[in-house]
Design a protein that fits this description.
Elements (H helix, E strand, L loop, with lengths): L8 E5 L2 E5 L1 H5 L6 E2 L4 H18 L5 H9 L4 H8 L27 E2 L27 H14 L18 E5 L3 H7 L4 H7 L3 H4 L15 E3 L5 H5 L5 E4 L6 E3 L6 E3 L3 E5 L4 E3 L9 E6 L2 E5 L13 H5 L2 E2 L3 E4 L2 H9 L5 E11 L2 E12 L7 H27 E2 L3 E2 L6 H22 L6 H23 L9 H18 L3 H4 L1
Parallel strand pairs: 6-11
Antiparallel strand pairs: 1-2, 1-3, 4-10, 5-16, 7-10, 8-9, 12-13, 12-15, 14-15, 16-17, 18-19
The structure holds zinc ion.
Length: about 500
């Protein structure tokens, strides 16, 4: 199955589900939304489509990219572009299968579960898969799963390398009106690439590492890895077992096709020095003793995605460190500055090889955000500050004040914080999508008032059961007074009134 010619892209249009080819998608011959039962697979599918499209067409500059976004390709242009890349994307190629290596040695084959993030972890309750475990995957789903495992998932354990971005990076895609537009908006121009990857020009003819493999134990500089080689980097040595000859139901998309039921994997270690600037990731860095340490943000706690927004889209730098927005965002700031921008943000939260949670959120940023990123920071700071006020008051209720007020001994901080995040999620998303970036004062005030009433309400709800406990009354009264003070301190005019 060749990803450049076969019909493998699952789309849905007005309730009708079908698989189409990349040519049909890029030439505008078929339209619909990417559709798969798992949102992480949908995200990985879009990510893979952008990577393939980047491989086939790297626009020179903003103008050339604009043309691709606005006009579907002609079949002739598509056909001409794929000819010399066919051997990069053939899943069953005799020598260079897509994202695999031939001759991988393992005593037992690994079942397909292991290729799908979170399915075989056992401990994971959020990943109930409707069809049970993954028995077999069709061509399209297995290609997406291979790409997802190589780019977005923790490694298979000791002796296996993870992705160029570390174990579970946050991935960010710009969303267009159609999948075709989305794909192009996440393709970088040569202009953009040269600015983030000064080594682009000298490495642009590199091929993927599953075509020209590295050696075991090699040390590779990140700055020696070209754009396409990095986008299609396969960190691990995997080889799919041959697909079944008869048709079976795919455990992911549900189609009836020959399926892949397992793969061989082999330990393979090497060292990458430095950080490869992935187009779909922001980077955070700290400066210690003059040395810059960079890494990719990931979801490390259960705090919702909006709490990460600032470091995903805003550039910042100080003596101690800072953050750099994802290259696609940097490019989009110039490209769609005059319009609202929609973002897809996704990733996993893990504990080593175990996936605890997966995220897939859609964010909009109102028009004008590129000139007023400080407003994004204010919105997020507000959301976090009210959460902190609530936590601090509940903490006082639990522990009291030494030698003065006995605490209740009931610590409500974590469960109430979780409810706070649930209840403010859509409010925070709406604020980012609708704020008037040019003159945000009224919107910010309104947001604060809403956050304040949510905090008061949650405090009351959480402490109501303890109002009848005489031993806790003092702690409750003290916590309530403290909450009022914390909330007052957050008011915009708080200082003036005092
Ligand atoms: Zn499938």
């Amino acid at each position: 199955m060749n990803l450049l010619t076969a019909a493998w892209i699952p789309i849905q249009n007005q309730g009708i589900y079908e698989k189409i080819t990349l040519q049909q998608l890029l030439c505008g011959e078929k339209e619909g939304d990417i559709y798969l039962p798992r949102d992480d697979m949908e995200l990985a599918c879009l990510q893979l489509l952008s990577a393939i499209t980047q491989t086939l067409f790297t626009p020179e500059n903003k103008k050339a990219l604009g043309k691709y976004v606005n006009q579907p390709l002609t079949p002739e242009v598509y056909q001409a572009a794929v000819q010399d890349k066919l051997n990069w994307f053939d899943l069953d190629h005799p020598e260079t299968p897509f994202m695999q290596f031939r001759g991988v040695k393992s005593t037992d084959a690994t079942p397909m579960n292991k290729l799908m993030a979170g399915v075989a972890d056992g401990t994971n309750k959020t990943f109930v898969n409707p069809q049970g475990l993954i028995e077999g995957l069709c061509h399209g789903c297995v290609a997406i799963a291979l790409f997802n495992a190589a780019n977005n998932c923790p490694s298979m354990g000791g002796g296996f390398k993870g992705s160029l971005r570390g174990s579970t990076p946050i991935t960010l895609l710009i969303k267009g009106k159609t999948p075709r537009e989305t794909i192009w908006l996440n393709v970088l121009t040569e202009e953009t690439i040269t600015s983030i990857m000064p080594w682009y020009e000298t490495t642009k003819d590199q091929v993927p590492n599953y075509l020209t493999p590295i050696n075991k134990g090699d040390t590779i500089q990140a700055s020696a890895i070209g754009l396409l080689r990095g986008l299609l980097w396969q960190p691990a040595h995997f080889e799919l077992l041959q697909a079944t000859s008869e048709q079976q139901r795919c455990s992911c998309c549900g189609c009836n096709e020959p399926v892949y039921t397992g793969f061989n994997k082999e330990k393979f270690s090497y060292t990458i020095e430095g950080v490869w600037p992935h187009p779909l990731s922001s980077r955070i860095f700290t400066i210690k003793a003059g040395n810059k340490e960079e890494k990719f943000p990931s979801f490390t706690t259960n705090a919702p995605t909006w709490t990460h927004m600032s470091r995903l889209v805003v550039d910042q730098q100080s003596d101690k460190g800072g953050q750099q927005a994802a290259p696609v965002i940097k490019q989009a700031r110039k490209f769609i500055a005059s319009a609202k921008m929609q973002l897809i943000v996704g990733g996993y939260r893990n504990n080593q090889a175990t996936i605890l949670e997966r995220r897939h959120d859609l964010f909009s940023l109102a028009q004008g955000w590129t000139e007023h990123v400080e407003v994004i920071q204010q919105i997020i700071q507000n959301g976090l500050a009210y959460k902190t006020a609530l936590r601090k008051a509940l903490y006082l209720f639990a522990v009291g004040i030494k030698d003065k007020v006995n605490g209740s001994g009931v610590n409500l901080c974590d469960p109430v914080e979780a409810i706070y995040y649930q209840q403010t999620e859509s409010l925070m998303q709406k604020s980012l999508a609708q704020v008037h970036f040019e003159a945000p004062e009224d919107d910010l005030d309104a947001l604060q008032q809403q956050l304040k009433s949510i905090v008061k309400e949650l405090f009351n709800q959480a402490t109501t059961p303890y109002r009848q406990e005489p031993k806790m009354l003092k702690a409750l009264a003290m916590a309530r007074r403290s909450l009022q003070k914390y909330l007052k301190d957050l008011e915009p005019q708080g200082e003036e009134n005092e």
